[in-house]
Amino acid sequence: MSGASKGLGKVDIKLKWDPSPMGAPDHDLDLVAAVFHTEEPLGEPAYLVHHDSRSPDGTITLSRDSTTGQGYGFDEAMVFELERLDPRYGRVVVGVTVQQRSGPKSLGEVPNTLVKIAEGYDELAEDNLAGVAGFPSATVAEFLRDEAGEWLFRPYIHGYEAHPSTFLTLMGRSGPLE
């Protein structure tokens, strides 16, 4: 486990929500991540990680993927092994998006959403997405590599009025990057 002076190592991001009522189309939310080159932290992502994928080097893995929200505990989970990420990458942005197969739906139309971000037993952030309830997609976290090569976490709650496929091209192209 990393201390504050060591930067972040292995981070888990988990997402949960309640299933849709019986007979209604399923609520299908997805965790997504965009990885950016150090030289272009607001440029085009070097690669994306989302359902049915993982990072090319295995440092970012979607370890749990639900299409219904049914089950116990968290429905989606993504693991980030930041300490293993190649030094040419300096920024990772994480988002949540609602699949739109059954028509337009915002995050606020999905009951009891919760995003939890932790490194081991240390909780970094928790958010119910109420601040972005009117949007179908939102960023939730940003990880930045500092000058010493250590990873830092910043909450990054920002809603996007974009379809999931468009959101993947937009997320992280602007942002708090301070």
Question: What is the first-to-last residue Cα distance?
Answer: 25 Å
Q: What coarse outline follows from CA principal-axis ratios?
A: globular
SSE order, one letter for each helix or strand: EEEEEEEEEEH
Give the averaged pLDDT, no decimals: 87
Largest sheet: 5 strands, antiparallel
By secondary-structure content and strand pairing, the structural class works out as: mainly beta
**Lateral arrangement of strands in the main beta sheet:** 4-5-1-7-8
Number of continuous helical runs: 1
Radius of gyration: 16 Å
Oligomer: single chain
Proportion in helices: under 10%
Strand content bin: 35-45%
Query: How many individual β-strands?
Result: 10
Structural account:
This protein has 178 residues and is mainly beta. Helices cover 4% and strands 40% of the residues. It is built from 1 helix and 10 strands, in the order E-E-E-E-E-E-E-E-E-E-H. The protein has one helix at 164-170, and strands at residues 10-16, 29-37, 47-49, 60-64, 76-81, 89-98, 114-119, 122-127, 137-145, 151-160. The strands form 2 sheets. It has a 5-stranded antiparallel sheet with strand order 4-5-1-7-8, with no helix packed on it. Strand 9 (137-145) and strand 10 (151-160) form a beta hairpin. The longest helix has 7 residues, at 164-170. The protein is globular and about 50 Å long. The chain starts with 9 loop residues before the first strand and ends in an 8-residue tail after the last helix.
